[in-house]
Specification:
CATH superfamily of one domain: Type I PLP-dependent aspartate aminotransferase-like (Major domain)
Strand order of the largest sheet: 4-12-11-10-7-5-6
Radius of gyration: 21 Å
Structural class: alpha/beta
Number of strands: 17
Distance between the termini: 41 Å
Shape: globular
CATH topology of one domain: Aspartate Aminotransferase, domain 2
Low-confidence stretches: none
CATH class of one domain: Alpha Beta
Order of helices and strands: EEEHHHEHEHHEHEEEHEEEHHEEHEEEH
Largest sheet: 7 strands, mixed
Number of helices: 12
Protein backbone atom coordinates (compact mmCIF):
# COMPACT_ATOMS: atom_id res chain seq x y z
CA UNK A 1 0.00 0.00 0.00
CA UNK A 2 1.31 3.44 -0.88
CA UNK A 3 2.18 5.72 2.03
CA UNK A 4 0.11 8.81 2.76
CA UNK A 5 3.18 10.88 1.81
CA UNK A 6 3.99 10.22 -1.85
CA UNK A 7 7.16 8.08 -1.71
CA UNK A 8 9.36 10.15 -4.03
CA UNK A 9 12.18 10.56 -1.49
CA UNK A 10 14.73 8.07 -0.21
CA UNK A 11 14.75 9.35 3.34
CA UNK A 12 17.32 8.73 6.05
CA UNK A 13 15.86 7.08 9.20
CA UNK A 14 16.00 10.36 11.10
CA UNK A 15 13.26 12.56 12.49
CA UNK A 16 14.40 15.95 13.71
CA UNK A 17 12.10 17.81 16.06
CA UNK A 18 14.12 20.91 16.94
CA UNK A 19 17.00 23.01 15.68
CA UNK A 20 19.40 25.29 17.52
CA UNK A 21 21.98 27.19 15.48
CA UNK A 22 24.05 24.55 13.67
CA UNK A 23 22.55 21.66 15.60
CA UNK A 24 19.54 19.42 15.03
CA UNK A 25 17.84 17.43 17.78
CA UNK A 26 16.45 14.03 16.83
CA UNK A 27 13.20 12.75 18.33
CA UNK A 28 15.22 10.36 20.51
CA UNK A 29 17.28 13.24 21.89
CA UNK A 30 20.49 12.82 19.88
CA UNK A 31 22.17 16.05 18.75
CA UNK A 32 23.41 16.15 15.16
CA UNK A 33 25.87 18.74 13.86
CA UNK A 34 24.20 20.07 10.73
CA UNK A 35 26.45 20.63 7.71
CA UNK A 36 23.57 20.33 5.26
CA UNK A 37 21.55 23.39 6.33
CA UNK A 38 18.47 22.01 4.62
CA UNK A 39 20.51 21.83 1.37
CA UNK A 40 22.04 25.31 1.66
CA UNK A 41 18.78 26.86 2.87
CA UNK A 42 19.27 27.72 6.55
CA UNK A 43 21.78 30.48 5.93
CA UNK A 44 21.67 31.67 9.54
CA UNK A 45 21.15 28.26 11.10
CA UNK A 46 18.12 27.01 12.97
CA UNK A 47 15.82 29.26 14.99
CA UNK A 48 17.93 32.39 14.59
CA UNK A 49 16.45 34.87 17.12
CA UNK A 50 16.24 37.78 14.66
CA UNK A 51 14.44 35.67 12.05
CA UNK A 52 12.06 34.21 14.64
CA UNK A 53 11.21 37.70 15.86
CA UNK A 54 10.72 39.13 12.37
CA UNK A 55 8.46 36.25 11.37
CA UNK A 56 6.48 36.43 14.62
CA UNK A 57 6.04 40.19 14.37
CA UNK A 58 4.82 39.93 10.78
CA UNK A 59 2.56 36.98 11.53
CA UNK A 60 0.67 39.10 14.02
CA UNK A 61 0.01 41.75 11.37
CA UNK A 62 -0.56 40.28 7.90
CA UNK A 63 0.08 36.90 6.28
CA UNK A 64 -1.35 37.06 2.78
CA UNK A 65 -3.27 39.44 0.54
CA UNK A 66 -2.17 38.31 -3.00
CA UNK A 67 -0.45 40.34 -5.67
CA UNK A 68 -3.69 42.11 -6.55
CA UNK A 69 -2.44 44.76 -4.13
CA UNK A 70 0.75 46.54 -3.15
CA UNK A 71 2.72 44.64 -0.49
CA UNK A 72 4.95 46.81 1.67
CA UNK A 73 7.31 43.99 2.69
CA UNK A 74 7.73 42.92 -0.93
CA UNK A 75 8.64 46.44 -2.02
CA UNK A 76 11.13 46.71 0.82
CA UNK A 77 12.91 43.51 -0.14
CA UNK A 78 12.87 44.32 -3.86
CA UNK A 79 14.36 47.76 -3.19
CA UNK A 80 17.10 46.18 -1.08
CA UNK A 81 17.98 43.60 -3.74
CA UNK A 82 18.12 46.27 -6.44
CA UNK A 83 20.36 48.37 -4.20
CA UNK A 84 22.74 45.45 -3.51
CA UNK A 85 22.95 43.85 -6.96
CA UNK A 86 23.10 44.40 -10.72
CA UNK A 87 19.31 44.15 -10.97
CA UNK A 88 16.77 46.80 -11.89
CA UNK A 89 13.71 44.72 -11.04
CA UNK A 90 12.69 41.65 -9.02
CA UNK A 91 9.87 39.09 -9.20
CA UNK A 92 9.29 36.98 -6.10
CA UNK A 93 8.57 33.26 -6.23
CA UNK A 94 8.29 30.48 -3.64
CA UNK A 95 11.18 28.31 -4.85
CA UNK A 96 14.13 27.90 -7.18
CA UNK A 97 12.02 25.79 -9.52
CA UNK A 98 9.55 28.63 -9.97
CA UNK A 99 12.43 31.02 -10.50
CA UNK A 100 13.69 28.81 -13.33
CA UNK A 101 10.29 28.82 -15.02
CA UNK A 102 10.18 32.62 -15.03
CA UNK A 103 13.80 33.00 -16.15
CA UNK A 104 13.08 30.83 -19.20
CA UNK A 105 9.85 32.69 -19.97
CA UNK A 106 11.55 36.05 -19.54
CA UNK A 107 14.38 35.20 -21.96
CA UNK A 108 12.03 33.89 -24.63
CA UNK A 109 9.57 36.77 -24.27
CA UNK A 110 12.46 39.21 -24.64
CA UNK A 111 13.24 37.90 -28.12
CA UNK A 112 9.60 37.54 -29.10
CA UNK A 113 9.04 41.23 -28.38
CA UNK A 114 12.17 42.11 -30.36
CA UNK A 115 10.64 40.47 -33.43
CA UNK A 116 12.77 37.32 -33.29
CA UNK A 117 10.44 34.59 -31.98
CA UNK A 118 12.70 31.93 -33.51
CA UNK A 119 15.32 32.77 -30.87
CA UNK A 120 14.00 30.48 -28.16
CA UNK A 121 16.85 28.03 -27.66
CA UNK A 122 18.63 28.09 -24.31
CA UNK A 123 22.07 26.55 -23.89
CA UNK A 124 22.67 24.66 -20.63
CA UNK A 125 25.40 22.36 -19.33
CA UNK A 126 26.01 18.78 -18.34
CA UNK A 127 25.78 18.26 -14.59
CA UNK A 128 23.46 21.19 -14.06
CA UNK A 129 20.36 21.22 -11.90
CA UNK A 130 17.66 23.85 -12.35
CA UNK A 131 14.74 22.32 -10.45
CA UNK A 132 12.21 19.64 -11.29
CA UNK A 133 9.65 21.51 -13.37
CA UNK A 134 9.23 20.87 -17.09
CA UNK A 135 11.62 23.69 -17.96
CA UNK A 136 14.10 22.75 -15.23
CA UNK A 137 14.49 19.11 -16.22
CA UNK A 138 14.55 19.95 -19.92
CA UNK A 139 17.35 22.43 -19.31
CA UNK A 140 19.45 19.97 -17.30
CA UNK A 141 18.66 17.04 -19.60
CA UNK A 142 20.05 14.32 -17.30
CA UNK A 143 18.42 10.92 -17.74
CA UNK A 144 17.66 10.56 -14.03
CA UNK A 145 15.61 13.77 -14.22
CA UNK A 146 13.83 13.32 -17.55
CA UNK A 147 13.25 9.56 -17.90
CA UNK A 148 9.55 8.81 -18.07
CA UNK A 149 8.44 12.44 -18.22
CA UNK A 150 8.46 13.03 -21.98
CA UNK A 151 7.78 14.74 -24.24
CA UNK A 152 10.27 17.25 -22.92
CA UNK A 153 9.84 20.98 -23.29
CA UNK A 154 11.78 21.78 -26.46
CA UNK A 155 14.34 24.51 -26.99
CA UNK A 156 17.24 23.40 -24.79
CA UNK A 157 20.73 22.29 -25.73
CA UNK A 158 23.22 20.72 -23.28
CA UNK A 159 26.99 21.10 -23.61
CA UNK A 160 29.95 19.75 -21.68
CA UNK A 161 30.85 21.59 -18.49
CA UNK A 162 33.52 24.23 -19.10
CA UNK A 163 33.93 23.54 -22.85
CA UNK A 164 34.29 27.10 -24.14
CA UNK A 165 34.98 26.13 -27.75
CA UNK A 166 31.87 23.96 -27.92
CA UNK A 167 29.86 26.78 -26.38
CA UNK A 168 30.90 29.31 -29.00
CA UNK A 169 30.23 26.82 -31.78
CA UNK A 170 26.74 26.09 -30.40
CA UNK A 171 25.54 29.70 -30.53
CA UNK A 172 23.46 30.39 -33.63
CA UNK A 173 20.52 32.41 -34.88
CA UNK A 174 18.15 30.43 -32.65
CA UNK A 175 20.02 31.05 -29.39
CA UNK A 176 18.17 33.14 -26.83
CA UNK A 177 20.28 32.67 -23.72
CA UNK A 178 22.87 30.68 -21.80
CA UNK A 179 21.92 29.33 -18.37
CA UNK A 180 24.47 28.09 -15.84
CA UNK A 181 25.32 27.75 -12.16
CA UNK A 182 28.55 29.55 -11.19
CA UNK A 183 29.05 26.63 -8.80
CA UNK A 184 27.20 23.44 -9.60
CA UNK A 185 25.63 22.03 -6.46
CA UNK A 186 23.76 18.82 -7.29
CA UNK A 187 26.37 18.23 -9.99
CA UNK A 188 29.07 17.68 -7.39
CA UNK A 189 30.29 21.10 -6.16
CA UNK A 190 31.94 22.11 -9.42
CA UNK A 191 32.90 25.80 -9.55
CA UNK A 192 33.24 27.42 -12.94
CA UNK A 193 36.61 29.24 -12.96
CA UNK A 194 36.35 33.04 -12.96
CA UNK A 195 38.07 33.21 -16.34
CA UNK A 196 35.45 30.88 -17.82
CA UNK A 197 32.57 32.88 -16.38
CA UNK A 198 34.10 36.04 -17.82
CA UNK A 199 34.40 34.25 -21.15
CA UNK A 200 30.73 33.29 -21.11
CA UNK A 201 29.75 36.89 -20.40
CA UNK A 202 31.93 38.04 -23.30
CA UNK A 203 30.31 35.50 -25.61
CA UNK A 204 26.85 36.70 -24.61
CA UNK A 205 27.86 40.31 -25.29
CA UNK A 206 29.47 39.38 -28.61
CA UNK A 207 26.36 37.60 -29.87
CA UNK A 208 23.79 39.82 -28.13
CA UNK A 209 22.24 36.96 -26.15
CA UNK A 210 21.14 36.85 -22.50
CA UNK A 211 23.09 35.35 -19.63
CA UNK A 212 20.96 33.61 -16.99
CA UNK A 213 22.74 32.66 -13.78
CA UNK A 214 21.27 30.09 -11.42
CA UNK A 215 22.43 31.15 -7.95
CA UNK A 216 19.74 29.23 -6.12
CA UNK A 217 22.32 27.19 -4.19
CA UNK A 218 25.53 29.22 -4.51
CA UNK A 219 24.02 32.66 -3.85
CA UNK A 220 23.16 34.71 -0.76
CA UNK A 221 26.60 34.69 0.83
CA UNK A 222 27.33 31.00 0.32
CA UNK A 223 30.69 31.62 -1.44
CA UNK A 224 31.77 34.59 0.69
CA UNK A 225 30.36 37.21 -1.67
CA UNK A 226 26.68 38.08 -1.67
CA UNK A 227 26.44 36.32 -5.04
CA UNK A 228 28.99 33.96 -6.57
CA UNK A 229 29.31 35.80 -9.90
CA UNK A 230 30.82 38.76 -8.07
CA UNK A 231 34.11 36.84 -7.77
CA UNK A 232 34.49 36.99 -11.56
CA UNK A 233 33.62 40.68 -11.75
CA UNK A 234 30.72 40.11 -14.15
CA UNK A 235 26.96 40.52 -13.98
CA UNK A 236 24.16 38.46 -15.53
CA UNK A 237 21.07 39.73 -17.33
CA UNK A 238 18.76 37.44 -15.35
CA UNK A 239 19.45 35.61 -12.10
CA UNK A 240 17.55 32.90 -10.26
CA UNK A 241 17.63 33.01 -6.45
CA UNK A 242 16.03 30.92 -3.67
CA UNK A 243 17.20 28.69 -0.79
CA UNK A 244 19.32 30.94 1.46
CA UNK A 245 17.38 34.13 0.73
CA UNK A 246 14.54 32.95 2.98
CA UNK A 247 16.78 31.49 5.68
CA UNK A 248 14.44 28.48 5.86
CA UNK A 249 11.18 30.18 4.92
CA UNK A 250 10.05 29.36 1.34
CA UNK A 251 11.16 32.26 -0.84
CA UNK A 252 12.67 32.67 -4.28
CA UNK A 253 13.21 35.46 -6.74
CA UNK A 254 14.20 36.35 -10.27
CA UNK A 255 16.42 39.41 -10.57
CA UNK A 256 16.88 41.10 -13.93
CA UNK A 257 18.12 44.17 -15.71
CA UNK A 258 15.44 46.35 -17.27
CA UNK A 259 16.25 45.37 -20.86
CA UNK A 260 16.00 41.62 -20.19
CA UNK A 261 12.72 42.05 -18.29
CA UNK A 262 11.16 44.37 -20.86
CA UNK A 263 8.76 41.75 -22.20
CA UNK A 264 7.27 40.88 -18.82
CA UNK A 265 4.35 43.28 -18.76
CA UNK A 266 1.10 43.10 -16.77
CA UNK A 267 -0.54 39.70 -17.17
CA UNK A 268 2.48 37.83 -18.56
CA UNK A 269 3.34 36.11 -15.27
CA UNK A 270 2.00 35.76 -11.76
CA UNK A 271 2.04 33.91 -8.45
CA UNK A 272 -0.56 33.55 -5.75
CA UNK A 273 1.88 33.21 -2.86
CA UNK A 274 5.02 34.71 -4.37
CA UNK A 275 6.21 37.77 -2.45
CA UNK A 276 3.78 37.34 0.44
CA UNK A 277 4.35 39.50 3.54
CA UNK A 278 5.66 36.65 5.71
CA UNK A 279 8.30 35.47 3.25
CA UNK A 280 9.47 38.95 2.31
CA UNK A 281 9.73 40.10 5.93
CA UNK A 282 11.99 37.14 6.69
CA UNK A 283 13.98 37.63 3.47
CA UNK A 284 14.65 41.26 4.34
CA UNK A 285 15.95 40.21 7.75
CA UNK A 286 18.21 37.58 6.17
CA UNK A 287 19.71 40.20 3.84
CA UNK A 288 20.20 42.58 6.75
CA UNK A 289 22.65 40.06 8.20
CA UNK A 290 24.16 38.31 5.18
CA UNK A 291 24.82 41.41 3.06
CA UNK A 292 26.89 43.03 5.80
CA UNK A 293 30.53 43.23 4.59
CA UNK A 294 31.81 42.13 7.99
CA UNK A 295 29.54 39.08 7.92
CA UNK A 296 30.78 38.11 4.44
CA UNK A 297 34.38 38.58 5.55
CA UNK A 298 33.69 36.11 8.36
CA UNK A 299 32.21 33.63 5.87
CA UNK A 300 35.44 33.81 3.89
CA UNK A 301 37.59 33.36 7.01
CA UNK A 302 35.56 30.37 8.20
CA UNK A 303 35.63 28.88 4.71
CA UNK A 304 39.43 29.04 4.72
CA UNK A 305 39.52 27.36 8.12
CA UNK A 306 37.19 24.59 6.98
CA UNK A 307 38.95 24.08 3.64
CA UNK A 308 42.32 23.73 5.39
CA UNK A 309 40.92 21.15 7.77
CA UNK A 310 39.27 19.19 4.97
CA UNK A 311 42.50 19.17 2.95
CA UNK A 312 44.23 17.62 5.96
CA UNK A 313 41.49 14.98 6.18
CA UNK A 314 42.02 14.11 2.52
CA UNK A 315 45.73 13.64 3.21
CA UNK A 316 45.04 11.54 6.31
CA UNK A 317 42.49 9.27 4.61
CA UNK A 318 43.73 8.70 1.03
CA UNK A 319 41.69 5.51 0.66
CA UNK A 320 38.45 7.32 1.49
CA UNK A 321 38.80 10.83 0.03
CA UNK A 322 40.21 11.94 -3.30
CA UNK A 323 40.03 15.73 -3.05
CA UNK A 324 38.14 18.68 -1.62
CA UNK A 325 36.69 21.34 -3.89
CA UNK A 326 34.27 24.23 -3.90
CA UNK A 327 34.08 27.85 -2.89
CA UNK A 328 33.32 29.53 0.42
CA UNK A 329 31.02 27.43 2.59
CA UNK A 330 29.89 25.40 -0.41
CA UNK A 331 32.41 22.57 -0.30
CA UNK A 332 32.53 18.99 -1.48
CA UNK A 333 34.59 15.94 -0.58
CA UNK A 334 35.07 13.73 -3.61
CA UNK A 335 35.11 10.19 -2.27
CA UNK A 336 36.94 7.05 -3.37
CA UNK A 337 34.42 4.78 -1.66
CA UNK A 338 30.70 5.29 -2.33
CA UNK A 339 29.64 8.65 -0.92
CA UNK A 340 26.56 6.94 0.52
CA UNK A 341 28.86 4.79 2.67
CA UNK A 342 30.61 7.91 3.97
CA UNK A 343 27.26 9.57 4.59
CA UNK A 344 26.04 6.55 6.56
CA UNK A 345 29.19 6.70 8.68
CA UNK A 346 28.58 10.41 9.21
CA UNK A 347 25.07 9.67 10.49
CA UNK A 348 26.60 7.21 12.95
CA UNK A 349 28.79 10.10 14.17
CA UNK A 350 25.68 12.32 14.43
CA UNK A 351 26.85 14.52 11.60
CA UNK A 352 24.73 15.75 8.67
CA UNK A 353 26.09 16.18 5.14
CA UNK A 354 24.43 15.97 1.71
CA UNK A 355 25.32 13.63 -1.18
CA UNK A 356 25.81 14.93 -4.72
CA UNK A 357 26.77 13.65 -8.16
CA UNK A 358 30.32 12.60 -9.06
CA UNK A 359 30.54 10.67 -5.78
CA UNK A 360 30.78 13.89 -3.76
CA UNK A 361 29.70 14.60 -0.20
CA UNK A 362 28.47 18.19 0.11
CA UNK A 363 29.27 20.32 3.14
CA UNK A 364 26.91 23.30 3.37
CA UNK A 365 26.96 24.65 6.93
CA UNK A 366 25.12 27.70 8.17
CA UNK A 367 27.01 30.84 7.18
CA UNK A 368 27.28 31.86 10.84
CA UNK A 369 28.81 28.52 11.89
CA UNK A 370 31.19 28.93 14.86
CA UNK A 371 34.87 28.03 14.79
CA UNK A 372 34.17 25.49 17.54
CA UNK A 373 31.52 23.76 15.42
CA UNK A 374 33.90 23.67 12.46
CA UNK A 375 36.49 21.92 14.64
CA UNK A 376 33.84 19.49 15.87
CA UNK A 377 32.73 18.81 12.30
CA UNK A 378 36.27 17.93 11.26
CA UNK A 379 36.55 15.58 14.23
CA UNK A 380 33.32 13.81 13.32
CA UNK A 381 34.31 13.54 9.67
CA UNK A 382 37.62 12.04 10.78
CA UNK A 383 35.77 9.44 12.86
CA UNK A 384 33.47 8.66 9.93
CA UNK A 385 36.47 8.21 7.63
CA UNK A 386 38.12 5.86 10.13
CA UNK A 387 34.93 3.77 10.23
CA UNK A 388 34.95 3.60 6.41
CA UNK A 389 38.61 2.52 6.45
CA UNK A 390 37.81 -0.24 8.92
CA UNK A 391 34.92 -1.45 6.76
CA UNK A 392 37.14 -1.33 3.67
CA UNK A 393 39.81 -3.48 5.32
CA UNK A 394 37.22 -5.97 6.57
CA UNK A 395 35.77 -6.21 3.09
CA UNK A 396 39.20 -6.95 1.62
CA UNK A 397 40.07 -9.66 4.16
Amino acid sequence: MISSVLPTYSRAPLNFVKGEGSWLIEADGRRFLDFGAGIAVNALGHAHPALVKRLSDQAQKLWHVSNLYNITQQQELADKLVELTFADTVFFTNSGTESCELAVKMARKYWYDKGAPERLEIIAFEGSFHGRSSAGIAAAGAEKLVKGFGPLLPGFKQLGWGDHDALEAAIDEKTAAIILEPVQGEGGIRPLPDACLKGVRELCDKHGILLILDEVQCGVGRTGKLFAHEWAGITPDIMMVAKGIGGGFPLGAVLAIENAASGMTAGTHGSTYGGNPLACAVGTEVLHHVADPDFLAEVRRKASLLMQGLAELVDQHPDIFETVRGHGLMLGLKCKVPNTDVLSACYDEEFIAVPAADNVLRLLPALNITDEDITEALNRLDQAAQACEKALKEGQS
